[in-house]
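okkk here we go again. third time trying to get the NAP bound version out, last two times i messed up the smiles copy paste (missing a bracket lol). double checked this time i swear
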Amino acid sequence: MTKKTILITGASSGLGEEMARQFADRGHDLALCARRTDRLEALRKELEGKHPGGRFEVRALDVNDDDAVFEVFRAFKADFGSIDRVVVNAGLGKGAPLGSGRYDANRQTAMTNFVAALAQSEAAMEIFREQGTGHLVLISSMSAMRGMPKAGTVYAATKAGVATLAEGLRMELRGKPIEVSVIYPGYIRSEMNEKVKNAPFMVSTEKGVHAMVEAIEKGKAHAEVPAWPWVPLGYAIRNLPLSLVRRMMG
Ligand SMILES: NC(=O)c1ccc[n+]([C@@H]2O[C@H](COP(=O)([O-])OP(=O)(O)OC[C@H]3O[C@@H](n4cnc5c(N)ncnc54)[C@H](OP(=O)(O)O)[C@@H]3O)[C@@H](O)[C@H]2O)c1
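finally!!
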């Protein structure tokens, strides 16, 4: 397997942190960012202990700071000489029913999950266009498959936006050596859902991220992960009448 340099945003916890571990296990070098640098430093130490031949750089980044996104991505590119893959993973799961007085929470979700994902994609694509190669990976969600009610409405809309961004880019880049993947995770245990007791089909962080990393390494254009039960459920969510989807999603 060819060693790659992979930049991951939101690497301080949950899926991003575990992707870092599993990509490092596969021999890749990593550029890791998030706001909680203490956690990034601890992760770097762990990875350096386990993989003495690997290179692991960490930087503080708030993805809602547009200028910082471009600066940090360029600084990582300068560190390593090139960046082979960028995983746009930073995100949050806040939200409230529209009109319930929590525009602040919905706006924060929209800015972090969509506008900041756009900034990260712009910064990554600048690097990839200059290099002539690269792999952009956008982390969407199964909730992108259909509009979602209540606290999930804005979250689902942002994740559908992220998936559409990926599809447009993929259409543009067809036949060129810049790949674009969109990953639709089902319920995977992380900080985002640590208080959720009975989410259906919830899998451990390790198992869920293993499915994500397999799909990413294969360069899949899109992947619902883990495939079971999310591929058939995704089909159902996209195609059933809204009344039935509403009953399925609670
Ligand atoms: N877990 C699931 O079941 C699931 C399902 C579908 C999709 N997803 C998606 O997977 C991605 C990772 O989520 P997770 O489940 O791993 O949640 P998590 O454990 O809460 O991790 C979220 C990560 O995003 C980072 N982040 C949040 N806001 C940020 C900001 N403004 N600037 C920089 N980094 C920021 C956090 O780092 P700091 O706080 O240190 O900055 C953290 O590393 C998200 O995009 C989420 O929507 C998760």
